[in-house]
Amino acid sequence: MEEKFENLEDRLYDKSYICPVCDNKFKAREIKKGKTVFKSLDLGLRGYFEPLMPDYYYVVMCDKCGYAAVTKTFNKTNARQIRNINENVNKNYKPPMYPLVYDANIAIDRYKKALYFAHIKGSDLSEKAYIAQKIAFICSDIKDEKQELEYNKHAYNWYNEAYLEEKFPIMDMEENQYLYNLAYLAYKIGNKDECKKTLSKVIVRKDLTATLKEKIEDFLEILKQDKA
């Protein structure tokens, strides 16, 4: 029972960053190593942890100019992207203040700001898709089905286009996981035939990890039950 009442702030720390847009030195909230407990892995390969969800803290935001991006790409901004940001973002923009511990609504707001900057700077389609899917995941935490569907559709469309244009690994995903994720997104937006078609192609590959093979088998069983 004592664990339940522990201050969640004690599980977080402030990591130092330098903004690639304005050179401001600032700190962003991150979860300390070993301060969450893994509970399960869902069909979308999203891990569930207690008492804090790590993906609520995957957006880094400059507290001076407001530039926001996911941790995977925050420091991968090139000169053209920085120019796009400086030319298109209001110089008087003031980033919001957030509490020390983020809930689902705050996490969604931060991801939306990261998506806004991804559009402004002309990010790869896969980066936009990654952010959109994160928004959808967190919308599911608060049962916001309308927004969850909207952002899953964005993620599916952008990932589909990125598959034709970008080279692997794409957002740290190799091709097998990437195709599985496309199948999952197809399922989430109601395209079950496309989901089954993609899963059937992936499961016969010889280089599948044990975890991915197990998830595909589980997924195909769910699709069978859906038709029953």
Overall description:
The chain is α+β, with helices and mostly antiparallel strands. It has one domain (12-173). 48% of the residues lie in helices and 13% in strands. The protein is built from 7 helices and 6 strands. The chain has helices at 79-88, 104-121, 125-141, 145-165, 175-188, 192-202, 210-227, and strands at 12-18, 25-31, 37-41, 47-50, 59-61, 68-70. It has a two-stranded antiparallel ribbon. The protein has a two-stranded antiparallel sheet with strand order 3-4. Helix 2 (104-121) runs antiparallel to helix 3, helix 3 runs antiparallel to helix 4 (145-165) and helix 6 packs antiparallel against helix 7. The chain is globular and about 55 Å long. It starts with 11 loop residues before the first strand and ends with a helix.
How would you summarize the topology of this molecule?
Blueprint: E1 12-18, E2 25-31, E3 37-41, E4 47-50, E5 59-61, E6 68-70, H1 79-88, H2 104-121, H3 125-141, H4 145-165, H5 175-188, H6 192-202, H7 210-227
Antiparallel strand pairs: 1-2, 3-4, 5-6
Task: For this entry, give a set of tags.
228 residues; alpha+beta; two-stranded antiparallel sheet; 48% helix; globular; disordered N terminus
